[in-house]
Specification:
Number of strands: 2
Distance between the termini: 32 Å
Largest sheet: 2 strands, parallel
Order of helices and strands: EHEHHHH
Number of helices: 5
Strand order of the largest sheet: 1-2
Strand content: 15-25%
């Protein structure tokens, strides 16, 4: 199955769990969060694995565009630098999760 649009290609509330990588490091993450929430059954859970921005490879791909393009990085990838640790305490990411319909969000 090829999915090109999370809002139309998959049935609403059809997944108990969604596991993903590099969801929050894209510039379209608010739209992605809303679409993924739509796919979860009530009480469903989502788990994201995100790249550590300070990993030397990730850091280079994000700070030197030529290296990023050569490594296949999409233009929409912005890296987790968008969030600093204090953002989690200032609730900016948690606010995005809440606005997308998620509850009981946990960041580790």
């Amino acid at each position: 199955m090829q999915v090109t649009d999370l809002m139309t290609d998959l049935t609403k509330e059809s997944f108990d769990y969604i596991i993903g990588t590099a969801i929050l490091c894209h510039d379209q993450y608010p739209q992605n969060l809303k679409a993924l929430h739509r796919l979860l059954k009530p009480g469903g859970q989502i788990l994201f694995f995100e790249a550590n921005y300070w990993n030397p490879q990730v850091f280079l791909k994000n700070t030197v565009p030529l290296i990023g393009r050569a490594a296949g990085q999409a233009r929409c990838q912005v890296g987790m630098r968008k969030y600093k640790l204090e953002d989690f305490y200032d609730d900016s990411l948690m606010r995005e999760l809440d606005e997308s319909g998620f509850i009981d969000s946990l960041y580790e």
